[in-house]
Amino acid sequence: MPPSASAEAVVRDYYDALRDGDPLPPYFSDADSTVKFGISESLFGGDDVAAALEAQTETTEKWVVESQGLAVTDRGGFATFADEVTMAWTETATGDRHRFDSRWSGTLVERDGADDPRANAWQFVAMHVSAPREL
Questions:
Q1: pTM metric for this prediction
Q2: Does residue 89 sit in helix, strand or coil?
Q3: Which helix (H) or strand (E) holds 9?
Q4: Where is the SnoaL-like domain (predicted)?
């Protein structure tokens, strides 16, 4: 995720990282106010979000993430996004396959810390993933 990447490029890169099994916590702010709502989970705070994403990466594989119409609006220092996403994955312990037609939305902020190697990179501070049925 290069520092000059646009908010849209970071969202798309996040989708790629999910598919590839790459670390996901760097895409999220570590702030206490960071939130992530999944199909059947609610996470509050950067530490809880990071822990859940690490566990997800360790226990799932063969991700499909197909964007149906990503819309990103850069609002100068923060950005909003919305998308309809077909997503699927396999649980490594059981081999169970899950598939959802889902809706994603959220907010990203642009980091500008000079000491941070991710300076000027966008990070999620809020993400909401929903589907018409529970997991």
A1: 0.89
A2: strand
A3: helix 7-20
A4: 8-133
What confidence tens digit (pLDDT) does each residue in 65-100 have? Answer: 999 999 999 999 999 999 999 999 999 999 999 999
CA dihedral 85, 76, 53, 51 (to 10 degrees): -160
Burial of 28 (0-12, 13-18, 19+ CB in 10 A): buried
Structural domains of the chain in order of their starting residue, each with its CATH number: 7-130 (3.10.450.50)
- What pLDDT digit, counting tens, does each position of 108-118 carry? 999 876 555 55
CA nearest to 20, candidates 29, 12, 30? 12
